[in-house]
Amino acid sequence: MKKIRIFLQTYIELSYQDFLSKKMPQRFRRYQEKRLKKHLNKVVPQSSFYSRFINYNGVINHREFPIMDKAVMMRAFDELNTKQISLKQAKEVALHAEENRDFAPKIGSVSVGLSSGTTGNQGVFLVSDEETIQWSAAMMKKAIDRRKFKGEKIVIAFFMRANNNLYETINQGKIQLHFFDLLKPVNEHLAQLEHLKPNVIVAQPSMLRMIADFYTSHRLDYPLKEVFSIAEVLEEVDRTYIENSLSCHLKEIYQATEGFLGISCHHGTLHLNEDIVFIEKEYLTDSSDRFVPIITDLYRTTQPLIRYRHTDILVERKTPCPCGSSFTALEKIEGREDDCFIFGTKASEVVVFPDFIRYAITRASDEIKQFQCIQQTAEQITVKLELSSEAEKQQIIQRVVQQVNELIPPEKQPMVHINVETGTWDYEQDKKMRRVISNVKRGG
């Protein structure tokens, strides 16, 4: 009964906030501020790390808290969480689960998971039983449009590097979630899909492309009601290919170690889940619509997340979404701040955002099927291309070099070598696909 109560309470609360966001946006913002204050008053005294920031009057002021990143979060792990779980203990449980592919074990009532570590620091996250139910309610409310299923079973094929008790909470009633382990061979996945015939697929774009490849030569004989892209940046070239091959409209779920951050509405616009997370926006330039989010999760109490600075670059949508929601609407998730290309010294540094790099490459030719661009050093860029069989390779290479070169400051162009490689695309299926990667750090 307690689980049902938590589920219904969360579902109703999110439904109410959805209503406010569309009908009374100013009231929603006031409601969110109250929830933020209430949440901090509850969770901060329980965390020895955060409790030190209660001011001398005993007041908890959100703006007085430090901005957190993953490195600090992991260093302060033992003090930060409210269950007295050590980082050593949590990592042992998580690594044992990864090695044995058994993700059921917990520490008491707390599930443990590992991030993929693509940013360099592998994160460890803790989620209580209550928080998993709240997450499940949020997913049910936001991702599952029951009108599309008309009472039939909802069968979800869910592709991830690692399973977690968090995801298993989706399984209830007419909803069945089937975990597809990305460490297993792709052919096994495709055979399982044919047998399972899911009506919902949730996977990263690189896996969705493999599924799309399969169904260009095999008949897709089961109806897909929803297809969600997760984990990786969704490139327009991938979106077009997947939607055309699977005859679907592709939505996005913005889920990270830091929480359930966003999801596409029924108009296809990606919105931040401001009913779940309180977002501060750090704009990258004064006139920019690009920002990195600073996140305070309004539900997490086991491992509180207060003013956590994410490294994703988000591009804010300039026009309101037709769905009517006042939750921040995004044009796209552009990529990581760390993946900006850097040219020049600290005093005269020029930053090129990932989206400009993608556009420079993809507009070179419609025959580019896949690509990756890596800034190896300040003077070395590698572009990897997979081209269609009819492509004029040398012409495309010349155009790619020319257009990438135009992104480089003129005075630096003679020193930068752009090397283009062509071939068949190959990637590690249990790793996140990153189209734009920079090994050059700011201020270097």
Task: Itemize the secondary structure elements and their pairings.
Blueprint: H1 2-23, H2 25-43, H3 48-51, H4 70-75, H5 77-80, H6 87-100, E1 110-114, E2 124-128, H7 129-143, E3 154-160, H8 165-168, E4 175-181, H9 186-196, E5 200-203, H10 205-217, E6 226-229, H11 236-246, E7 250-256, E8 259-264, E9 270-272, E10 277-283, E11 290-297, E12 308-309, E13 312-316, E14 329-336, E15 341-343, E16 350-352, H12 354-362, E17 368-377, E18 380-387, H13 393-405, E19 417-422, E20 436-438
Parallel strand pairs: 3-4, 3-5, 5-6, 6-7, 17-20, 18-19
Antiparallel strand pairs: 1-2, 7-8, 8-9, 9-14, 10-11, 11-12, 11-13, 13-14, 15-16, 17-18
Helix pairs in contact: 1-2, 1-7, 10-11, 12-13
CATH architecture of the domain at 340-438: 2-Layer Sandwich
Rg, Å, rounded: 23 Å
Poorly predicted regions are none
Percent range for β-strand residues: 25-35%
The total of helices stands at 13
The largest sheet is: 12 strands, mixed
Q: Quaternary status of these chains? A: single chain
Mean pLDDT: 86
* CATH fold type of the domain at 340-438: GMP Synthetase, Chain A, domain 3
How would you classify the helix and strand content by structural class?
alpha/beta
Report helical residue fraction.
Answer: 25-40%
Shape: globular
CATH class membership of the domain at 340-438:
Alpha Beta
**Distance between the terminal alpha carbons, to the nearest Å?**
57 Å
- Strand runs, count: 20
